[in-house]
Amino acid sequence: MAGSVGAVSRRVRWFVAASACFLVAWQVAAVAGVPRPVGVRLGVYGFVLHAVFGQAYSLVPAYFESELESAGPLAVQFPATALGALLLAAGAARPASGLAAVGSVLWLVGVAVFVATLLWTLRSNLSGRRTGTGDHNAHRRDLDRLANAFVPIALAYLLIGSYATAAGATPLVPLLDGYPARATHLLAAGTGGLLVFAVGFRLLPRLLVATPPRPLAWLVLPTGAVGPALLAAGLGTPWLSVGAAVEAIAVGGFALAVLAVLRRSDRERVGRYGVLLGALAGVVGVSLGIHFATAGPTAALAAVHARLNVLGFLGLTIVGVSYHFYPPAVGDLPGAGDRLAAASIAALAGGLALEVGGVILSVDVAVVLGRILALVGSLLVAYVVAAAFRASANR
């Protein structure tokens, strides 16, 4: 029997709420000046991937004309990945503590439950040929089938990246040389980025009632599938420039698709600005990546590159999409609404821009102020999401 829609919806909110909490924790860590590996784990494993888990449980079964058969696996996965991400971050702060080993095993177990649950749900339609697309959207079925085909690839990146994470902290055989940044690129670009592309080409046309140019989907999705592998394998080698160029094509093409959809849409929803600013931040982030591949990175610019891609591209996109699913206007807390949601997006984007400018111009006070502004934005995001959850619970 299919799982209770209400139970699945409630448990999906656990992941969304955890994602918002990790976003705040990440910005607190940035303001406090903790080592960059701690922030990467809070940002990628905690914030981005918990948002991915929640939205995947909500959207992917329907996109493959399937339905989750039980809400039980969500209750198993959530404590494993949430605690795993926390321990990974703590372990990055205290490398000799053994916390990273425990966290990586918990994380891998939780991810295995997630992937197994989705694959079992999609088992009769793994190619995604059945899209669940209604007759009123029949003109989008070819684009929906194309987007569906890349979801299993994103899940493969998630498994490989999670294994690489565990292998880096346990006696498991390492992936290549065990360099931690390889796992981060597999998870952030391979899982987070590719799912943004695949789900985006299905979701944005429906939210904004406008269709992106199809040639861009054929450009973005294949390059978005290949780029992360080239990046992860190419770190420290001449192949990095190839991976950076391929990933730049994917992100740049997606930004053009977002611009085209927004230009054609007359839907004024606050979430659209998060998606737009996220796409633009992604273009800057991959441009910086190309610079690294040709000229070599510095520690400061490497940190900015991570912030642009994780907080900018992935983060602002996640916030924008979340505001579509959990409309700020229905919020049941004082001050919650579209204006506060717009302020949260402006604070995140403005803080990120200030931080990036401060690093490039070597103005330390701008970096600090940018991180503080981003922290304010993250707190506003958490408040707006909590208000929407409260309103839903009181119905």
What this model shows, in words?
Helix 1 (5-32) packs antiparallel against helix 2 (36-63), helix 2 (36-63) runs parallel beside helix 11 and helix 6 (151-167) packs antiparallel against helix 7. The model has no long low-confidence stretch (mean pLDDT 93). This protein has a domain at 277-395. With 395 residues, it is mainly alpha-helical. The chain has helices at residues 5-32, 36-63, 72-93, 99-121, 141-148, 151-167, 180-208, 214-234, 240-264, 271-295, 299-325, 338-361, 364-393. The longest helix is centred in the C-terminal third of the chain and has 30 residues, at 364-393.
Secondary structure layout:
Layout lengths: L4 H28 L3 H28 L8 H22 L5 H23 L19 H8 L2 H17 L12 H29 L5 H21 L5 H25 L6 H25 L3 H27 L12 H24 L2 H30 L2
Describe the structure concisely:
The chain has 395 residues and is mainly alpha-helical. It has 13 helices and no strands.
- Put simply, the count of helices is 13
Mean pLDDT: 93
Low-pLDDT stretches are: none
Number of strands: 0
H/E order of the elements? HHHHHHHHHHHHH
State the helicity in percent bands: over 70%
Main sheet attributes: strand count, strand direction, barrel closure: none
